[in-house]
C-alpha cells in the first residue's frame, strides 16, 4: 500500500478516517459490510496512476472512523450527511466528485445521488442496484417473510445478539467466513456452513495477510457500528417516504457478479433487466453482469473493475 496517505477529517460532527492517493479529479470509494477502506486497495493504486485522486473513507462505525453509540445515528441521513461534508472538504472549489460504491456503499451512493445530485459527476455502483421502496411492506419484514427468521438481515436486527454469537466464535473466524462465503442464512448455534474446527481455505483473491488486516481492525472495533446500518433498514424506509417514485438522474453504470447473493434476491433479476431499474435511474448507461463472480467483486476482479471505472469516468472528465 505504498504511497497511500491516511488522515482524519472532521465532518458532520464526527471524525472520519480516509485513505487517499493521487492528484486530479476526486473519485470517492464507498465500502460495504464487513469491509473497510482497504477493500478499495486495488482501485486506489490503479486509479491514482491514471490521473485521479482516489479517496476511500471508513464509513462511520467502521475502522478508525468514529462510531456513535446510538443505533439511530446510522440512518441514511447521517451517512449522506457525512458524505456531503466530506465531498466539500475534498473538493472545496466545485464540491462535486466521481463516486464508486459497493454493497452498503452502493446503497448510500444511490441515495447521495437522489438527495444531492449536485455533488456527483457520475457513479459506478457494484453489487447493489437502486432499491425501490415498497409503499406498504417494510424491507426487513419482507425478507423475513421470504427467507425466514434466520436470514442474515433479520439476525442482525437485535442490538447485541449477533455480536454475542460472533464473540463466541471469534473475530478471525467470523471475518474470514464472511469474506470467503457470505451466508444468506445464519442459524443460531451454527452460523456458518462448515464446522468451526474445519480450516478455512481463503479464495484466490484474498491472501492471509489481506484477511488478517480486516481481522485486526474488527478485533479492535467490534461489529456493532457496522451492524447498525442494518438496524436502520426499516427506519430508512420510513424516512425515505417523501422520495418514493423519485428518479436518480446522475449518469450511472452498474456491475454485478452472477454469483452475487444480492443478484439472487427475490425479484432482483427482473428489476435489473426488465425495465424497473432503468425507470428509476433514467441515466443508467450500462448494466454489466460478470460471469463466475460473487459479492466482493472489486477484490475478486480488480483489473476488470478498474477498467470499467476508468472507461466510464473518462467521458465526464
UniProtKB/TrEMBL annotation:
Listed EC numbers: 3.3.2.10
Record-linked Pfam families: Abhydrolase_1
Record-annotated AB hydrolase-1 domain positions: 25-302
Swiss-Prot/TrEMBL catalytic activity: (24S)-24,25-epoxycucurbitadienol + H2O = (24R)-24,25-dihydroxycucurbitadienol; an epoxide + H2O = an ethanediol
GO molecular function, one term: epoxide hydrolase activity
Highest taxon in the source lineage: Eukaryota
Pathway assigned to this chain's UniProt record: Secondary metabolite biosynthesis; terpenoid biosynthesis
Main enzyme class: hydrolase
Keywords: Hydrolase
Function noted in UniProt: Epoxide hydrolase involved in the biosynthesis of cucurbitacin and mogroside tetracyclic triterpene natural products (e.g. siamenoside I and mogrosides IV, V and VI). Cucurbitacins have cytotoxic properties and exhibit deterrent taste as a defense barrier against herbivores. Mogrosides are nonsugar highly oxygenated compounds used as high-intensity zero-calorie sweeteners; they also possess pharmacological properties such as regulating immunity, lowering blood sugar and lipid levels, protecting the liver, and acting as antioxidants and antitumor agents.
UniProt similarity note: Belongs to the AB hydrolase superfamily. Epoxide hydrolase family.
Name of protein: soluble epoxide hydrolase
Native species: Gossypium raimondii (Peruvian cotton)
Amino acid at each position: 500500500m505504498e504511497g497511500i496517505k491516511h488522515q482524519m477529517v472532521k465532518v458532520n460532527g464526527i471524525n472520519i478516517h480516509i485513505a487517499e492517493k493521487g492528484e486530479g479529479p476526486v473519485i470517492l470509494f464507498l465500502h460495504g459490510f464487513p469491509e473497510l477502506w482497504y477493500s478499495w486497495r486495488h482501485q486506489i493504486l490503479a486509479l491514482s496512476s491514471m490521473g485521479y485522486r482516489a479517496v476511500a473513507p471508513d464509513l462511520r462505525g467502521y475502522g478508525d472512523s468514529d462510531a456513535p453509540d446510538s443505533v439511530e445515528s446510522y440512518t441514511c441521513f447521517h451517512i449522506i450527511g457525512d458524505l456531503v461534508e466530506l465531498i466539500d472538504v475534498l473538493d472545496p472549489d466545485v464540491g462535486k466528485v466521481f463516486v464508486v460504491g459497493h454493497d452498503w456503499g452502493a446503497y448510500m451512493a444511490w441515495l447521495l445521488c437522489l438527495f444531492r445530485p449536485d455533488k456527483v459527476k457520475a457513479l459506478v455502483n457494484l453489487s447493489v442496484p437502486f432499491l425501490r421502496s415498497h409503499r406498504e411492506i417494510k424491507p426487513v419484514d419482507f425478507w423475513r417473510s421470504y427467507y425466514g427468521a434466520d436470514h442474515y438481515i433479520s439476525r442482525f436486527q437485535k442490538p447485541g445478539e449477533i455480536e454475542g454469537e460472533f464473540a463466541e466464535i471469534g473475530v478471525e473466524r467470523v471475518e474470514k467466513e464472511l469474506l470467503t462465503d457470505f451466508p444468506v442464512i445464519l442459524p443460531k448455534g451454527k452460523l456458518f456452513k462448515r464446522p468451526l474446527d474445519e480450516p478455512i481455505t481463503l479464495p484466490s483473491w484474498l491472501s492471509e495477510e489481506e484477511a488478517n488486516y480486516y481481522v485486526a481492525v474488527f478485533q479492535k472495533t467490534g461489529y456493532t457500528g457496522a451492524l447498525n446500518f442494518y438496524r436502520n433498514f426499516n427506519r430508512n424506509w420510513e424516512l425515505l417516504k417523501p422520495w418514493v417514485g423519485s428518479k436518480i438522474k446522475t449518469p450511472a453504470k452498474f456491475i454485478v457478479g452472477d454469483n452475487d447473493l444480492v443478484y439472487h434476491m427475490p425479484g432482483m433479476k427482473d428489476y435489473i433487466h426488465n425495465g424497473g431499474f432503468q425507470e428509476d435511474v433514467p441515466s443508467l448507461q450500462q448494466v454489466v453482469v460478470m460471469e463466475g463472480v460473487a459479492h466482493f467483486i472489486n477484490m475478486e476482479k480488480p483489473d476488470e473493475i478498474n477498467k470499467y471505472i476508468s472507461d466510464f469516468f473518462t467521458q465526464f472528465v
